[in-house]
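Can't paste images in this forum, so I'm doing it all in text. The chain is below; anyone willing to post the predicted structure tokens underneath?
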Amino acid sequence: MKRLIYSLSLLLFASQLATSQQISLKEKLPMDPAVKVGKLSNGLTYYIRKNVEPKNRAQLRLVLKAGSILEDENQRGLAHFMEHMDFNGTKNFPKNEMVNFLEKNGIQFGADLNAYTSFDETVYMLPVPTDTLEKLDKFMMVLSEWAAHATLEDTEIDKERGVVLEESRLRKGAQSRIQEKLLPVIFNGSRYAQRLPIGLDSIIQNAPYSSVRNFHHDWYRPNLQAVVAVGDFDPAQMEAMIKKYFGGIENPKNEKVRIKYEVPLKGTTEAIVITDKEQPYNMVQLYYLQPEKKEITAQNRRESIMASLFNSMISQRLQELMQKADPPYQFGMSNYSSFLGNLDALTVMAVAKGADVEKALKTVLDENERVSKFGFTETELERAKLAYKSRVEKQFNEKDKTDSESFVEELVQCFLNDVVMTDISFDNAFVKEYLEGIKLTEVNALVKKLITKDNRVLALIGSEKDKDKLPTEAQLKEWIDNTGSNITAYVDEAVATSLVSKMPKAGKIVSENKVEAVGVTELVFDNGMKVNLKPTDFKNDEIKFRGNSWGGSSLYDDKDFMNASFGSYMASVSGNGNLKASQLTKFMSGKVAQVNAVIGSNSEAIIGSSSVKDFETALQMVYNRFTNNNLDPEAAAGAIGNQRDFLINMEKSPTPEKVFGDSVQSVMSNYAFRGQPMTSARMEGVNPEKAMEVFKERFNNASDFEFTFVGNFDIEKIKPLLLTYLGGIPGTNKKETFRDLNINPPTGKVTKIVKKGTEDKARVLLSFTGTYAPNDAEELQIKALGDILSIKLTEKLREEESGVYSPYANGSTSRVPMPRYTFRIGYGCSPANVDKLVDITMKEIEKIKANGAETVDIEKFVSKQKLDFQTNLKNNDYWLNALTSKYQNGDKITEILTEDKLLDKVSVESTKATAKKYLSGDNIIKMILLPEDK
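Text version of the structure:
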């Protein structure tokens, strides 16, 4: 035993030494030592990392360095099609048995079990429980089935054609039409422009079976694949499973060469103007293309940090322009990052106000030119460094509480990009070693490298209705070469030293109660505020909180409704306390804390989070929200003006989705004034001063608020802070509640058909609504019926009919302002199939009403919910939401621990009774979006 302890001590010392010694900038970055990287004799690569957050769970990935870029001309779309086929029959899981097996184990198709196909890769995602070795072994079999054992039966291929065509149909519209014209220019005529993963409908519809099988044969091979496994398991056992299931897979004879395609750099400036009648706003995108810079060496990492500092500083400057009374654009951005294939890019984007593209573009370009000419300031760089260091430190603080999903996604990119994932201890040490040494002159010099006149692509995407007002391609090129003529150096204003101008007088605790079963301490302060505290160790450096009060905009007459709705927005854009928004952003550099105040229909809330060290800062922001709100007239005018301009654009060239969404909103509120969609005309009713006045009224009384805190804190240590900043808020001992304004969906059978758009696609939304008797058991039965119906519709409408891509159904409830339930069923489809699919949907509902849900579907629902419940009990967000809900509803908070027991009451009979009660069809709203008549 002594020898073991001595050995462990040496290992610990060696680890500490490795992270404390300076790494030479010429050295290659080291892979996280916790990751086991291996390669089988057939060429398959694997990455294994043990991680116990969450416990008894793992994230598995099968990664393939093959995507749509490898398709032959007659295979366009078959890489993505092949991804679909891996869920439709493999050697050990015929037809749909794989999905059935996984869903029975609580892994939901779509939400958990999924995959994606891109230009250069295909990735299969499988989050699994690891509570038994037998199950884990079978999950690894699933991964191997995807890797090599798809059966690709003729009948299954034909069935899946319709599903993929429906996915393609969903994507059709203004964006897809614009993309078809834009990509050949951005991708410089390379193969990428002709290999969008969704492919061509004609090929999906008519491709011979052999074409699908050929793609699978050529590219689904181990020397192009990786298995990534991160989670709570024995790494040695995982490695053995990988060898067991993947070691025998062979590469094809005479294998095709995996060409690495590139986007060429032509050294020129390209410009294009694209308009579409369904494009609502005018936007410019400028790409400064550069060869890709991978993080291979320590020097590369240092350069990457410099680029991150640049992004942070330029973003701050562009955001400050939004605080003006007349902002120059709706939105502006300048950001350097990876682009595609072999390229990185500095991407400059501006959304114009109306048709004033010149002002929007030149403003963003001027800011880049201002930096190029005068550079950033030392104070800007210092703040950017603080923010960067703070982000890394927070990750370091959570090193033993990091979710497996974070690791697995990074390791996927390691395989795809041939890089490594460094350990967070290394990252933290590297930042301490090199961040401060980055000089302002270096960052300013970087700007000149990023902004050049070579390899530029400028695209204007605009509304067809503004076509005559928009610049030509020649004008665009002229503008980007003639910017910054009258610019002056940026002046960085001094940063405030404090948030609170005058410290409040601390309050007192008048009562304290401990609910030992759930580890909650309930406090009442002498100002009337209630505070509930649940310390946890789920995260090392996280505290989350929420404060609620009933009332909201319901307490205001219709004439003040818009002001009440925009009150929290006016407060947000005005900053916090005596600090304007731009000043607040600078003050918060290096601090991890955020606080948002929201006025809802029936309540108002303060929602926030912080690191442990910045908890006091978060509380100070809360205190200011109650006691010190100052309208910034310039920022408020700019924000409202931008909102109005945006809505004018949307109204001028509305998309079919917006028209349909607005119609749904109006119908579901029975055309009540407050339920109508936002319009530019309604914006005229917003008065910034009155909106701020309403905000102050909603947040002027501590007595009416109840706060709940969850996270890593010691109750006794934070009590003084809570008593100062929450106990110090004035209270009137007045309690309010909401008003029920009777804004409810219409009763009876309602059908609304909306016609908009030119693409051959439809959307269906069915809503069943009504009242219910509120209690946890009934609410779970409603949720269960919705989720089970979603499983059944996926089986019927997608798998059997091949008529939709992603149908959904859900059952939801709300107790405020009065208990109501809503079942929603929706999907996109061909206009020709609307009636047939609605008929099938209604027949499935009738089957459940007559016979109850099938046992297998109940099993899938219950398995998923039990897995989620186990994970949720170790999650701060879950506890915050659950506790807040229980306190608001007046329920016992101890019931949180036994909510999974309600799952035992979901049965064939309960689903039958629930369907009869809530899906009677007496109150059903059917809404359908169809293309316009031609």
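The domain at 749-930 is CATH 3.30.830.10 (Cytochrome Bc1 Complex; Chain A, domain 1). The longest helix spans residues 776-800.
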